[in-house]
């Protein structure tokens, strides 16, 4: 039985985005969940499922259930993993709702990624992955390094340039100007981009996402029930997982092809929607390069053409495919994936204010495309008619 | 190197121990499937090609080709604070190009994609030797086999 349009997102919630929340991830999660439930017009007593992902850095669903006074969750998921599984969390919650295991599931991600557990690697032990023993001894131990390695190959193979990466950073900052939640709202130019310091060549500071303390939450329920709730439902038309090979040392011979390349056809056929019907895309942008490679792997342009596609203005508001309309992780903030889904929901509801994509009906939202972990996940969402 | 922040060293596991033992004696080993001949690395018991469990260690030539490289400026770990900027390369080994290893760079100039390289076995301490890479044409004769 297909998942298509059987489950809806009926509420989204946020905490503030900051460099130091001053509170625990448990507190952040509770606040985001309360905010999402308020948006949906529901109460805590309506929740019968909780799901999150984490890498040993956040509050467990069981801990949240206890905090919220929920004695019996019908379904819960504590998914180990980073950005690559972010959309899988929502996909699995949708399966649980569609299968009748739970009626109303809240997916959340709470993270103190600046003040407590920095993703940039500083002071944090390397992740528990099979690659670690073969990479960390050489000082290769943080995501920017792994993405830089792939970005370099893309430059060598396809002629992708710093200006192409810069176009992603500048465009997304332009979008963040219209997002009051965004942490970085001062416009930047390509010159600012090129003048920003090297982090790990070929990536500069402005290629890298922000380290953020924040939580977001999404409320899912059946499409049938969604029609009686406060806000216009956004339907989950497709939810897909992909990947197996981890890049670097695990047999994926071409690092410029990500797990998204094999996931995309599955996602599109599930939803009966192709890339030309997508009005906007929230593409996992831990680094500018990941946007470029996903433009290719999700079929918006040919392999190798992601850089020119971005630099020609297609990804800007008003372009053929507005991308990361909230500013993305580069400028809004980094909540490890779920804030992309929240923005897609806002766009499809027509709630996005000055950054609204006119007539937005279909949105793609994606997870980390598979560097580091080898896996990815994505959702196709559409406005309920 | 800082005493306060020791560098991460490989902690061999039950699969990888013979690989690291090989590196210590100057040999870059990968597994070779007894049934289909496919090479594999990092070490694991089953062949991803034919699913046989029978295999043996095979010493490679320690030669490869640079696929990609990065130059680190940011200090991602305090144990590398005194090393920046440093270059890390990804090398495809000559025997089978989908076996790709990350290692330090010890060439005099910058690496280039497609550059022919050879493994340099760098003693780290009593127990540990690491694999770094240098261009074949920079290798002194004394190190040639
Ligand atoms: Zn075999």
Which descriptors would you attach to this protein?
heterodimer; A: 385 residues; alpha/beta; Peroxisomal Thiolase, Chain A, domain 1; two-stranded antiparallel sheet; B: 145 residues; OB fold (Dihydrolipoamide Acetyltransferase, E2P); 5-stranded mixed beta barrel; binds zinc ion
How does this model look, in words?
The complex is a heterodimer of chains A (385) and B (145). Chain A is α/β, with parallel strands linked by helices and 385 residues long. The two termini of chain A are 22 Å apart. Helix content of chain A is 33%, strand content 19%. In chain A, the strands form 2 sheets. A 9-stranded mixed sheet of chain A has the order 3-2-4-7-1-8-11-10-9. A two-stranded antiparallel sheet of chain A has the order 5-6. By secondary structure, chain B is mainly β. Chain B has 1 helix and 8 strands; from the N terminus they run αββββββββ. Chain B has one helix at 17-24; strands at residues 29-33, 39-40, 55-59, 63-72, 86-93, 100-105, 116-123, 129-135. In chain B, the strands form 2 sheets. A 5-stranded mixed beta barrel of chain B has the order 4-5-6-8-7. In chain B, a hairpin with a 5-residue loop joins β1 (29-33) and β2. The mean pLDDT of chain B is 92. The chains are: A alpha/beta (385), B mainly beta (145). The A-B interface holds A 120-123, 126, 130-142, 144-145, 148-150, 152-153, 156, 197-202, 248-253, 255 and B 7-13, 16, 40-42, 48, 67-80, 83, 85-86, 88, 90, 92, 97-104, 113, 124, 128, 130, 132. Residues 33, 35-36, 38, 47, 49-50, 52 of chain B line the site of zinc ion (ZN).
């Amino acid at each position: 039985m297909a998942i298509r349009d059987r489950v809806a997102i009926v509420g989204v919630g946020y905490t503030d985005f900051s460099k130091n929340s001053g509170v625990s991830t448990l507190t952040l999660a509770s606040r985001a969940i309360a905010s999402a439930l308020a948006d949906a017009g529901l109460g805590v007593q309506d929740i019968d499922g909780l799901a999150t992902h984490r890498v040993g850095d956040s509050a467990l669903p069981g801990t949240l259930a206890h905090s919220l006074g929920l004695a019996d969750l019908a379904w819960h998921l504590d998914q180990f993993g980073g950005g690559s599984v972010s959309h899988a969390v929502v996909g699995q919650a949708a399966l649980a709702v569609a299968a009748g295991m739970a009626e109303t599931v809240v997916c959340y991600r709470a993270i103190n990624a600046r003040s407590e557990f920095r993703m940039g690697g500083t002071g944090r032990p390397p992740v528990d992955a099979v690659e670690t023993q073969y990479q960390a001894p050489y000082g290769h131990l943080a995501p920017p390094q792994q993405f830089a390695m792939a970005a370099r190959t893309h430059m060598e193979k396809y002629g992708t340039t710093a200006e192409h990466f810069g176009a992603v950073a500048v465009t997304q900052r332009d979008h963040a100007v219209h997002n009051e939640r965004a942490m970085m709202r001062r416009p930047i130019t390509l010159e600012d981009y090129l003048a920003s310091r090297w982090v790990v060549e070929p990536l500069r500071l402005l290629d890298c996402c922000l380290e953020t303390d924040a939580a977001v939450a999404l409320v899912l329920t059946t499409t049938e029930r969604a029609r009686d709730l406060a806000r216009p439902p956004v339907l989950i038309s497709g939810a897909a997982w992909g990947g197996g090979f981890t890049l670097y040392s695990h047999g994926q011979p071409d690092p410029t092809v990500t797990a998204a390349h094999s996931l995309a056809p599955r996602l599109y056929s599930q939803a009966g929607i192709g890339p030309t019907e997508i009005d906007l895309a929230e593409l996992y942008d831990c680094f500018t390069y990941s946007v470029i490679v996903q433009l290719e792997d999700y079929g918006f342009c040919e392999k190798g053409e992601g850089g020119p596609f971005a630099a020609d203005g297609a990804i800007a508001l008003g372009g053929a495919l507005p991308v990361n309309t909230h500013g993305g992780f580069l400028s809004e903030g980094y909540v490890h994936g779920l804030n992309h889904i929240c923005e897609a929901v806002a766009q499809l509801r027509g709630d996005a204010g000055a950054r609204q994509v006119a007539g937005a009906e279909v949105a793609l939202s994606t997870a980390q495309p598979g560097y580091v972990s080898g896996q990815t996940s994505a959702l196709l969402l559409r406005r309920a008619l | 190197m800082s005493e306060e922040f020791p560098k991460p060293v490989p902690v061999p596991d039950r699969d990888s121990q013979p690989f690291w033992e090989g590196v210590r004696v100057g040999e870059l080993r990968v597994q070779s499937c007894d049934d289909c001949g496919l090479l594999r690395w990092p070490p694991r018991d089953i062949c991803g090609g034919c699913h046989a469990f029978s295999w043996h260690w095979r010493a490679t030539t320690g030669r490869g080709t640079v696929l990609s490289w990065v130059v680190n400026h940011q200090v991602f770990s305090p144990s590398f604070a005194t090393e920046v900027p440093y270059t890390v390369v990804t090398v495809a080994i000559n025997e089978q190009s989908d076996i790709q290893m990350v290692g330090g760079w010890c060439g005099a100039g910058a690496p280039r994609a497609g550059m022919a390289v050879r493994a340099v076995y760098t003693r780290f301490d009593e127990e540990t030797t690491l694999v770094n890479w240098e261009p074949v044409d920079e290798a002194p004769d004394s190190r040639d086999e």
